[in-house]
Prior knowledge:
This protein is α/β, with parallel strands linked by helices. Helices cover about 50% and strands about 10% of the residues.
Amino acid sequence: MEKTNHNAKAHPxxxxxxxxxxxxxxxxxxxxxxxxxxxxxxxxxxxxALLALLEDGREAEVLEVITNYCQEGRVVSMGPCLFALAVCxxxxxxxxxxxxxxxxxxxxxxxxxxxxxxxYKKELKDTKSGLWGRALRKAVSNWYNGxxxxxxAASVARCKQQNGWSHxxxxxLSHTKPANEGVALVCKYIMKxxxxxxxxxxxxxxxxxxxxxxxxxxxxxxxxxxxxETEVITMIEEHALEREQLxxxxxxxxxxxxxxxxxxxxxxxMKRLGKMTAxxxxxxxxxxxxxVCDRIQSDAVLKKARIHPFxxxxxxxxxxxxxxxxxxxxxxxxxxxxxxxDSAFYKSFTYLEPxxxxxxxxxxxxTSLSSIVPGTSVSTxxxxxxxxxxxxxxxxxxxxxxxxxxxxxxxxxxxxxTLEQVTAELVKTPSExxxxxxxxxxxxxxxxAVDVFIxxxxxxxxxxxxxxxxxxxxxxxxxxxxxxxxxxxxTSIGHAVTDTPDRGVLSICGFDLGAIMLIRNMAQGLx
Length: 527
């Protein structure tokens, strides 16, 4: 078998090993298909480009990409990056292993990631030597010692174990020696428990940082043994305790939930609005409901949370539906909450960062747009309108088109329009059969240079006059630009445009926030 020359200069549209690695890190597959809400399973077999780049001596490049993509939030889930880092940490080259372990504290920002990394290393271990060598022990020790003591205490209280590993396991196996008094206190709490911590620190004159950690852990322990509702609420409000730090019987109290809602992360709050309404924790016209509404649409809160408009829309439509996915929990949606979430949806566009690229958003209206995007309560018509708004409101050079059969109609979509107005604008054209090459042919004929074509459709099977890749190639050749093509099958569960070696083509099956992230990554040439 002839070996590929990985160092040969490739055309910008060819999928080389680096592009395959970037795809793998972003969504767990080296292919050009992303399926929304799919559980990602990674293995050596699915990471061929990663192994090829390491074999070619490009270890430093691989580790740089892993670290950058994690730190910049360019991945749909952390699993593929953690797996790739685990592979690098077991490379035959000692410098690569050292660099991988050095990157651990930058890549693993919380215990969940750390536990997952350790588990991947365990699964990858293919020699008789033990897992816990000197390098891993040092890296795990550095992870704990590199944490702010208060942040470490809070993360330990939130997440004690996962993926078959606990903090106690990691501290014991890594032989961690705390680098400062704050971390020492948390480590003692993990290994010996609160009773011994209290005995050692309660009567000592401790530095301020140690005292803060001690006081926090004291509250975490105290709440576990409290049956006094008022006391529990006071501790939640004064020490910002979270749901994970409470016991099951605490969460049966409406008043405890009301206290939690005051500081609950906005994304979590929006997801729980239905249950809170169903349990009458949030009642129409109550001061608690008004406080939640004020918080949802607060400019300061939205700016800090930076929740994407599409996430807010999904939460809003789920809430308006009045029941959970399995239909067991039902509620009557509160008009004030709906209004607050609607307000938050429009305000959230303010915090989107423009890419400064030329986009064509083309909506296929040849089939009914009344279907539902899988995993949500959002109709495909509303989803298409929201996706269109995301780009039209942030990118100055965005052309919106509706197409059906042989006709293609430019749409007037501008910042400031409502979701209802955009939806009506998109579906006003009569529907016929479909041809997704029309937008590219239109741009080519009108000499419009386009960076990214985004096609939104319900159709799982497309009728083409010509291949979409051929139409894309013609546009590139005529306009002298490396245009990209993204086909979003909003109701699809696995259909793709074509199996192509073209780096500028991506198929999205279904739709979620990860899909928007991948479109942004593609527009910037990152995948």
